[in-house]
């Protein structure tokens, strides 16, 4: 029996406890925008942008939250939780944050790093021996079958946490990638346990040799099994005990219990013919009101804007919140450090490869973006065209959530809607633009800070 199956009852108890004591929730202090350097008038542009999307029928509703210097500047709701319900969107609405789960999984991994359980340059086979003998796809033979060759070495933990290990993802039946097609057809993301998932991956082709390129992948889900093996707990129980409970993230987890489903935001997609919102068919994504058989460290969490704000403030504080330390400051700094060489592409559309001299990175990320440990890093904001401070970390989820944490300007932003694919990369960029235009003081100097020389000293 897996740790997960043994721990469902225990976690249900935790959820019942927090639901019975709503006072456990601890909102961050609030401040007027001007008190922390913002213009109230200019910040209205964020609200106008979000309300316009509601009025145009592009989203049902949403929540945004902005904080600086440890204080919430604004938390605003828009539209409805569900189009077929009369009630407005509540501030504590629960959203599927999908790939925004990855940074949380990264923190879970780093808690174990602080305990000395693993090192960055450990081979992942130290913790997942099932991955001995991985092979990489090298074209097809005359009959169309993949030609597989043994990889030169096992991926490292650093590579696993930076999407450079060479794994595929299998989100779609991608004819352009033998590995992704194989993952998809094998149902890697629909496995009935994390162990079953790893067993499947072990018999499938790698997308690339370890350390050769950046490729968005199933890596964070693999990390989930490593967390279970190192901690002796299921991934949900470990996160509950070591992250959510200490940070008082009372509404964050891998499923929504019955007493909270009235706050679950409905998820939509745009009709391909009319463009109108329609209830989403979530495909392989499971019923979020029930415990998942294989909790996804890459995309399984649900949360609220208020809960994720507490997570973001912990990162911004260097690993602690309200006197509770989750990570060591040096470990948070390591998480936010770019671990990629300058030639690696980082994109959110699955594009991968290595830049040639003079070649520009493809949309949606430009030059200047790197990748830390389970999170994107703005190493050269001027080159990327983003009005953020150097060292800003960010990511988002495919159901329409996004965030960024800017240490240089001591601020963070959380945005949440529920529409598959969001409304394109423009919403993230537009809200970012309005936030920084509302800063009365100029943003932190947009200096080039790409420095990967520290990588060799981090073990």
- Uncertain runs with pLDDT below 50, 5 residues or more? 1-25, 360-364, 446-457
**Strand segment tally:** 15
Major beta sheet summary? 7 strands, antiparallel
Kindly report the name of the CATH homologous superfamily of the largest domain: DD-peptidase/beta-lactamase superfamily
The CATH class assignment of the largest domain is Alpha Beta
| Helix content percent band | 25-40%
Strand order of the largest sheet: 2-1-15-14-13-12-11
Mean pLDDT: 88
Number of structurally distinct domains: 2
Query: How is the CATH topology of the largest domain named?
Result: Beta-lactamase
The outline comes out as: globular
Structural class by helix and strand composition: alpha+beta
Name the helix and strand elements from N-terminus to C-terminus, one letter apiece: HHEEEHEEHHHHHEEEHEEHEEHEEEH
Count of helical segments?
Answer: 12
CATH arch. level architecture of the largest domain: 3-Layer(aba) Sandwich
Pfam families: Beta-lactamase
GO molecular function, one term: hydrolase activity
Keywords: Hydrolase, Signal
Signal peptide: 1-25
Describe the protein in words:
Helix content is 29%, strand content 14%. It has 459 residues and is α+β, with helices and mostly antiparallel strands. It folds into two domains: 3-100 and 232-457, 3-Layer(aba) Sandwich (Beta-lactamase), CATH 3.40.710.10; 112-228, Methane Monooxygenase Hydroxylase, Chain G, domain 1 (Up-down Bundle). Strand 14 (401-406) and strand 15 form a beta hairpin. Helix 1 runs parallel beside helix 8 and helix 3 (101-114) packs across helix 8. The longest helix is centred in the first third of the chain and has 18 residues, at 3-20. The radius of gyration is 21 Å and the shape is globular.
